[in-house]
Amino acid sequence: MQLILSIILSFLLVGCATPVSHTNIPLSTYDKDTEYGIEDREDGFGITVYYSRYQFIPESDAVATACRSQLTAIAWEHSDKVGKPIETVNDQRIRISMGRNGISGITSCQATAIVKWK
């Protein structure tokens, strides 16, 4: 019986993958699919976005694009809130990590970037 339970547990774990975290800053809810965290720096701020959503058919590219877009949008909103302009966020400088839970159908992404003040 233990062998069967071990095999079932192994299959469940094989179907699960979460994105690798690049930071450990606390995250706040932005919307139903997005959490974010901002870490102040002398020359700007670091931003981390965790984005996840259900997908019947996995489309990692769509989730990665949405994740990058959320990071950029939240960076600009933060800039407006503090009243300081920022430099354009370069997509090539956004670090992305992807994951998929095959059992629940959730595809997730964690994106991190450094945003500099103008």
What's the short version?
The protein has helices at residues 2-14, 60-82, and strands spanning 28-31, 34-41, 44-54, 95-101, 106-116. With 118 residues, the protein is an alpha+beta fold.
Shape: elongated
State mean pLDDT (0 to 100 scale): 86
Number-wise, the strands total 5
Largest sheet report = 5 strands, antiparallel
Question: What's the total helix number?
Answer: 2
The radius of gyration computed from the alpha-carbon positions, rounded to a whole number of angstroms, is: 17 Å
Approximately how much beta-strand content do the residues carry?
25-35%
Q: Give the N-to-C terminal Cα separation.
A: 63 Å
Tell me the structural class: alpha+beta
Uncertain residue segments: 5-15
Quaternary state, please? single chain
Question: What layout of secondary structure does this protein have?
Answer:
Blueprint (H helix, E strand, L loop, with lengths): L1 H13 L13 E4 L2 E8 L2 E11 L5 H23 L12 E7 L4 E11 L2
Antiparallel strand pairs: 1-2, 2-3, 3-5, 4-5
Give a quick set of tags describing it.
118 residues; alpha+beta; 5-stranded antiparallel β-sheet
Please give a structural write-up.
By secondary structure, this protein is an alpha+beta fold. The chain has one domain (2-116). 31% of the residues lie in helices and 35% in strands. The protein is built from two helices and five strands. Strands 1-2-3-5-4 form a five-stranded antiparallel beta sheet. The longest helix is centred in the middle third of the chain and has 23 residues, at 60-82. The chain is elongated and about 60 Å long. The chain starts with a helix and ends with a strand.
